[in-house]
User: What shape does this take?
Amino acid sequence: MASKENRWELDEKVTALVATRFGGDYRAAFAHYDGNGDRGGQQGRVEGVAGGRGDR
Assistant: This one.
C-alpha cells in the first residue's frame, strides 16, 4: 500500500493532469485512457493517467 505522501503526490499529479489536459473533466480523462471502452480500471490505464502520458 502506498504511503500517505505517495497518495498525496499521486492525487496532486492526477488533479493537475485532468485540469490542464481535460478542463477538469475526470470522466473525459479516464475515457481517454480506456482503449477498449469497458470502463474498467486496469493497471496500465491508471498508470497512464497518473503518469500524464498521452498514449492509451
